[in-house]
Amino acid sequence: MTATLTAPAVAPPSAAGPRRRRRTLSPTLLAFVLVPLLVETLWVFWPALQGVYLSFTSWDGVSPAVMVGFGNYAELFSDPTFGRAFLDTVLWLVLFGGLSALGGLGMALLLLKDRRGVGFYRAALFTPVVFSLVATALIWQAIYQPDGLVNTILGALGLDSWQHSWLSDANTALYAVIVPALWRQIGYIMVLYLAGLKGIDPTLYEAATVDGASRWQQFTKITLPQLSSVNSVVLSVIIIDSLRSFDVVWALTRGGPYHSSELLSTYMYSTAFQSLRLGYASALAVVIFVLAFGVILTYLVRAFRDADA
Amino acid sequence: MTTARFSRRNFLAGLGAVGAATALGGCVTSTGSSAGGGSATGPVTVQSNLSAPSAKAAMQALIDAFNKKGGSQASLNTVASETFRTQLPTYLTSSNPPDVMTWYAGSVARSYADKGLLLDVSDVWNGATGYSDALKQLSTDSGKQIFVPTSYYFWGLFYRKSNFAKWGVQEPTSWADFLQVCETIKSKGVTPIGLGADNSTPWVASGWFDYLNIRINGANYHRELLAGKHSFADPQVHKVFDQWKTALPHFDPKGTALSFQDATTNLLQGRTGMMLIGTFLLDTTPKEDVDDIGFFRFPVVDPSVPLAEEAPTDGFFASSHTKRTQQTLDFLKYLTTVEAQEAYLKSSSGSSLPANPAAKDAGTALITKGKEMLNKAADLTQFFNRDSSDALQPTADAALIRFIQHPEQIDSILTDWQTAAKKVWNS
């Protein structure tokens, strides 16, 4: 899906402009445009369109596909698991997205000033980003085990009644999965904000200090407005990452127990490759695509409008 | 506004592409009936999901032995079992498929045969001697054989003999005895029944459902239920769960948070008393502990129901698209021989029984006892996914794990299960 999402950015408005040239294009230039377009068509647009086509069929991967019109989409509305996965995805977006933005900003502010050892902390926070999410999940799986770190610590603190089978309890599974995802995402968002914060002109703060502005006023009146361009990047990164979150959930709970930590992405995968209902799974994929694409489109429109202004 | 023009142009181009896609869309779902590349010469390609190191080595040894005979040749390609499972439909429908594939006997193989994807291997069966009628029946679809079984194993309640002796309990035969044994083990401060049904191996919980259902409603009802001829919301199915409820307090409360490997460790270290599992448990048991492992038959619930047992059968089938029919049949014939099956068992962990009755098994007390149990059985079932389909298994996983955690919700669990199963049967 990543590739699909980046697709709109591929065709840059390079040739179009007020100065129209009559000169014919050089073959090299043409090749630079056509070859990537061909590759993109073959590996991105074509499979994506096949997916849309499949979403109108009923197909088990073996027999010929049968056209069912909008049957798969109609089924979505009466499917309680889809409802659950949709709500979980929204919850994921709010918790994972919101907390990683707040956490990332907080960490960036904390680690902005060059003090002794600050590089170490920045590196430490960024390290989880380097790990593959599946490896991250393996570490957290051990931590969440019934005899794992979390329960051992709770036991040592005398909180035995809080001990839990975190990943196999339907009430805690989704939240237990969000934590490792956050653990990784905060470092990433922090780096984005750090870059933004470094770009703010320090004289603004000097002037504010001279005017007697408090720390809080400096933060709300200077830092936040100055970060607005970074904020829109962070927002789109968060939304896209939320919608395509799959690996960490699949590795930790596979959407279970009994669909309690199901996201749209995991439900799509299990419908396609475990239940072999590829038509219905394609309809789910289309829903995810529309959601992601809608977000990107609004972002792009806004970004272009800002650039024109 | 250059951007606006561009997005409109993209949109129009996209619209055209959508039209083209619907016209050509058939490509993606076509079932590859046209003859592709692939030649009639070259070795028979064997696609195997036996990726455990000992099993993989045993397969390689088998292929080497076949190649040494100097006739047809074969080559092995081992794939991780999870990948294999998801890719199997693709293998079977491709125009240049692997010739021979490992898989399971029963409905799961028949469903592929019904779609015309499996090679008729009646020829192999005609040459094979001594195979039981039950195995032949299991490998038959609409009058012809489509599967070649090579080994099978059994399920039972496994325990440590030394622990049972220490606690002073005997193997129970009836359900009442079984609950009594659980009470005694509990009084010694040990969890009576272990379970390893976390998200990585949720299917082990199906063993309990299968056995309770064939003990209460019989093997025929069980198979019909899995084929969609009855509803999971039927009162008969309800009875199964009422029975299960009586044993549920003795289950390890962490059972749905542990993998079956962790649950095995708990059993071996005496933290749990017994566990319903297949003989593959021995594959992960340390050598020095194997002799201390015993098992007993799943207790009788209703004495009037004939005793059926779970005996999952493993083996091979071949693609109907193969270009090397004769060589493929040669290889499958070799797999049915005493020589091949003994060689395989010797190099693997020896926890299964050879399908050819003339071949010698591992001969341990446990294996001999299991073989006797199966020989006396009135009927044999395979396992939940093998008696239904791999697609139905996740619906059972969701329902059973929910039941183990929230037995009080059984009514809504069963109606939800039926709804989910119906979608699989109808698709």
From TrEMBL, chain A:
InterPro entries: ABC_transporter_permease, MetI-like, MetI-like_sf. Residues 1-20 are annotated as: Disordered. SUPFAM superfamilies: MetI-like (SSF161098). Keywords: Cell membrane, Membrane, Sugar transport, Transmembrane, Transmembrane helix, Transport. It is found in: Cell membrane. Pfam families: BPD_transp_1. One of its GO terms (cellular component) is plasma membrane. Residues 1-17 have a biased composition (Low complexity). Residues 86-301 form the ABC transmembrane type-1 domain. It is a multi-pass membrane protein. GO terms for biological process: transmembrane transport. CDD domains: TM_PBP2. The chain crosses the membrane at residues 29-49, 90-112, 124-144, 173-195, 278-301. PANTHER family: ABC TRANSPORTER PERMEASE PROTEIN (PTHR30193), INNER MEMBRANE ABC TRANSPORTER PERMEASE PROTEIN YCJO (PTHR30193:SF37). Belongs to the binding-protein-dependent transport system permease family. This is Multiple sugar transport system permease protein/raffinose/stachyose/melibiose transport system permease protein.
Automatic annotation (TrEMBL), chain B:
Keywords: Signal, Sugar transport, Transport. Residues 1-23 form the signal peptide. It comes from the Bacteria. The keyword Transport applies. Pfam families: SBP_bac_1 (PF01547), TAT_signal (PF10518). PANTHER family: ARABINOSE-BINDING PROTEIN-RELATED, BLR3389 PROTEIN. This is Multiple sugar transport system substrate-binding protein. The lineage of its organism: Bacteria, Bacillati, Actinomycetota, Actinomycetes, Pseudonocardiales.
